[in-house]
């Protein structure tokens, strides 16, 4: 069953797009990420122009985050104070990121930049998470009774001023640290069409030292409002938001997100981190293959076979 996407200017299979939305929603509920790190590359793989995929995917990130946040909020897994600090930085970063997106689009480099950034970011984060998960697994296997080590190290940044006490996360750290982290996530959200959870979740665990259960809900809180800001600015500035595509992704995501949240409640934090790292590396490998593959036309870097 085909449907025409007016902004993307092509026809796509409805059930394919619904399936992509459901997969992204599942990831949002399981890991506290928007799901865009998987859905945006997959949209590009099936033939959606990268600029349209990025802008339209932000809508689906909003819907996924709402659905997942409701579940996490009822379970008391949201650090509201931490979320507000992250959000302040995220709003500034996403506004600046949309401006940068517009500039790259104007000079004709946005498609290439999106692909390269995805490969670099996903490969780095996936490898770091996989290494840490395997190291924790083998350490516990050798000595199951050993006390659990800290997930983060106190770096120089923990000595920054303006310290706040985050009671839910049991932390006393500088507000500048989550503020800067939120700013970075906002830029990534605008340029890559993601909630930024694939960066935010590991950073909150390993850099800030937050408990995994609280991280998922707090991440969804920040992602929700940042993605909403990106959607509005992309539509107003670049006109690259395809409402039909976004609606189909949202419908699929609303179904997948609650299922993912229930799965996350039954899995240990170590297993969640390992699974997320494998998914991130798989997407990075496919993107790298796309970049290195010889184009079907030597005079066009953007042509690819559209899956129907």
Automatic annotation (TrEMBL):
Q: Which UniProt keywords apply?
A: Cell membrane, Membrane, Transmembrane, Transmembrane helix
Transmembrane helix: present as a keyword of the record? yes
Q: Does the keyword Cell membrane apply?
A: yes
- UniProt-annotated location(s): Cell membrane; Membrane
Under the heading InterPro entries, the entry gives:
TM_pro_TauE-like, TSUP/Inactive_protease-like
The signal peptide here is: none
Transmembrane annotation, as ranges = 12-31, 37-62, 83-104, 110-131, 171-199, 205-232, 244-264, 270-288
Indicate the family of this protein.
Belongs to the 4-toluene sulfonate uptake permease (TSUP) (TC 2.A.102) family.
Q: Which PANTHER family match?
A: MEMBRANE TRANSPORTER PROTEIN MJ0441-RELATED, MEMBRANE TRANSPORTER PROTEIN YTNM-RELATED
The name this protein carries in UniProt is: Probable membrane transporter protein
């Amino acid at each position: 069953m085909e449907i025409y996407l007016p902004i993307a200017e092509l026809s796509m299979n409805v059930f394919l797009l619904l399936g992509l939305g459901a997969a992204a929603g599942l990831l949002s509920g399981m890991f506290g990420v928007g799901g865009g790190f998987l859905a945006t590359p997959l949209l590009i793989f099936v033939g959606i122009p990268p600029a349209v995929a990025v802008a339209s995917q932000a809508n689906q990130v909003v819907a996924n985050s709402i659905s997942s946040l409701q579940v996490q909020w009822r379970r008391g897994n949201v650090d509201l104070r931490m979320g507000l600090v992250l959000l302040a930085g995220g709003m500034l970063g996403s506004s600046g990121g949309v401006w940068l997106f517009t500039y790259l689009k104007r000079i004709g480099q946005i498609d290439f930049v999106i692909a390269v950034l995805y490969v670099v970011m996903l490969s780095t984060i996936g490898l770091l998470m996989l290494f840490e998960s395997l190291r924790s697994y083998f350490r516990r296997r050798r000595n199951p009774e050993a006390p659990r080590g800290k997930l983060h190290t106190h770096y120089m940044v923990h000595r920054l001023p303006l310290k706040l006490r985050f009671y839910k996360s049991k932390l006393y750290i500088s507000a500048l640290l989550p503020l800067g982290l939120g700013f970075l996530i906002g830029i990534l959200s605008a340029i890559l069409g993601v909630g930024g959870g694939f960066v935010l979740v590991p950073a909150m665990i390993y850099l800030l030292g937050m408990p995994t259960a609280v991280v998922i809900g707090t991440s969804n809180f920040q992602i929700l409002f940042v993605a909403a800001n990106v959607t509005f600015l992309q539509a107003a500035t670049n006109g690259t938001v395809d409402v039909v595509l976004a609606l189909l992704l949202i419908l699929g995501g609303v179904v997948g997100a609650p299922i993912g949240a229930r799965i996350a409640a039954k899995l240990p934090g170590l297993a969640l981190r390992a699974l997320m790292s494998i998914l991130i590396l798989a997407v990075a490998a496919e993107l790298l293959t796309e970049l290195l593959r010889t184009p079907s036309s030597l005079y066009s870097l953007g042509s690819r076979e559209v899956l129907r």
